[in-house]
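Troubleshooting log. The previous structure file for this entry was overwritten by mistake, so regenerating from the original sequence record. Sequence copied from the archived sheet and checked twice against the printout by T.R.
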Amino acid sequence: MSNLFTIKEELIELKGNTSSLIVVDMQNDFAHPNGVLFCPNSTTIIQPIKNLLIKAREKNAKIIYTKDTHYQDDPVEFPIWGKHVIKGEWGWEIIDELKPETNDMIIEKLRYDAFFGTPLDHVLRTHGIKNLVITGTVANICVLHTVSSAKLHNYNVIVPVDAISAITDFDYQLSLRQMDFLYKVLLTKEKFVIFD
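Regenerated output below.
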C-alpha cells in the first residue's frame, strides 16, 4: 500500500519563529494502556514526538498541544465512542512522557478538528506561524481532521509518519493516502525535520 503515497526522506529545514509543532491528543485515555480508548500504536510514537519537542524547543518554535475535551453529558461523541477524556479527569491529561512545559500552549477542542470552535487559527496567525508539524493520535480521526483543516486554512503542513498512530494499519495507511493525495501534505520522518 505504501505506493499510494510518497514519504520524503531528506532534510526539511523549518524556521523556528514561523513554525509550530502540534501534538494532537496524546492523552491518557488514548495513549496510556489504562485509557478507555487506548490506541496501542500510540506508545511507538512517544519517542519521535519527544525528539521533535526537543528540536522545536531549542529553536523557539511554537509548541501547541491539543486536548480532546468533553463534559459529562456530551451528546455528540459519547453515543459513538462512550465516555472519554472528560475534563478534569485522569484520562483527559497529557501522558506523563510528553507533559507540556510552562510556555507551551494547550488548545481544548470539543470535536475531532483542532481548528473547529477553537482559537487555534488566531493563535497561529498572531504568532506569524506558516509551517505546522503535526503529530499525535488518532491518525484517521483527530490528526486527519486537524491536518485537513490546517491545509484548508492555507498552512504548510508537515507530518512525520513515525509520529502519528492509528488503531489499525488500514486506518494509518488510509490517513497517509488522504493527506498525500487530497491535501498534498509533506509526509516525512521525524529525523528529517529540522528547526533552525
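The mean pLDDT is 96. Archived copy saved in two places this time.
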